[in-house]
Amino acid sequence: MPVEHVDVLIVGAGVSGVGAACHLTRKCPDKSYLILERRERMGGTWDLFRYPGVRSDSDMFTFGYNFRPWNATQVLADGASIREYVEETAAEYGVDEHIRYGMHVLKGSWSTETGRWTLEVRDAATKRRKKFTANFVMACSGYYNYDEGYRPDFAGEADFTGTIVHPQFWPEDLDYQGKRVVIIGSGATAVTLLPAMAPDTAHITMVQRSPTYILTLPSEDKVSEALRRFLPDSLVWQLARRRNILLQRGLYQLSRSRPDMVRNLMVKLAQRQVRGKSDAANFVPHYNPWDERLCVVPNGDLFRAVRSGKADIVTDEIDRFTPTGLKLASGAELDADIIVTATGLNVQMMGGAKIEVDGEPVELSKRVAYKSVMLDGVPNAILVFGYTNASWTLKADLACEYACRLLNHMDRHGYRQAVPIAKDGDRGEESVLDALSSGYVRRAEALLPRQGTNGPWRVRQDYLRDVPLLRFGSIDDGVLQFRRAPARTANARAEATA
To the nearest whole number, what is the mean pLDDT of the chain? Predict the structure, then answer.
């Protein structure tokens, strides 16, 4: 079969993949590249999720790309606006012309002999397999499974006579007007769905096994609105972005150093906003702030929905489904026409593709992350992974900037291969997501790469420390090993001289 070759193959045309292509266009204009996208549209998460109210859970001044300002004053943008922003960015940099849609990457194989990656893909249109080769690969497909969300098995599901929906696969024709709705879950999806659906339902209840921290943010940045009257948009954006980066980092650090203080403050703020319309215990989590991601709600919309009487929150465990709803462990029963299982996601690395280096399978859980953007023993590959305690794109941008710096460094010195090599003392037991104790992280412990014990092998989850490391730090640091030309077998050398 014909094999197409480019300098860089990017897997995924979501926020990270489009961003990676834009960074290459800006910093490595001579590099040829393609984006392989499994779906039929760009946007990734923001094209997949279509449930009511879907929005960012990070402010857009820091979630937007560092090279293309988010100039609206909307703080938490809706999914359609984010997808449009990604599409406009791709068009501006000509990225849309380099995307191959319907390409499901099944396997990635590195050959030291040829100094190339070979990606085997399945073409959704023809159902046939194709191959692409590249000198460098950037994995930008995120870390969750697009094919299936996390769905625990509940007793009695078959008995329920209503409709069961998972937010990851929201039916376009779902009619919940005047219906009784129950949402199972307490994460970002659940706290988004409740206020978005409440006005149109007869009643909506969120059933949570344990409470989460819910923080109210203003829907519009009034400070930026005011500054725009006498400052240029570019400066207003820079000021807002820097302010929000410091606020994000400050809240996280305070949560880790003074957890009791932050816990008490956030609980009191939540209880004050609900104004006695729901049991105060529904807003008292059993873990410290930032052991799991905080949930944010614009203008306290979730609390408004509860105060209106159209919505409620119940903290209990599910005993079983019944023909008319749910029976809880406490013995209480909830009637429902529709049950939404906002129970989370399944983690999947590399989009589920198998990875090989010189014919040997790569077991990711036995690899250590280098500067949180490469894996030890895996050459010429960048893993674009966002922050868990701040906006995803802050880290994605830095990872892509580092990739461009690495590619340019290799070109200047005539290098063809770059691979980080960890020593025995560098390897740790914690995963790259170990800072979180969320259910999806614990379930994926055996799938995730490790982080190391020191230096570039530690995953810091700290933008202010990653900037000097990834944007300005030395490329040739003694850990990353380079090779000027691919190694060649004796037979290959003989053929070349025959």
Answer: 91
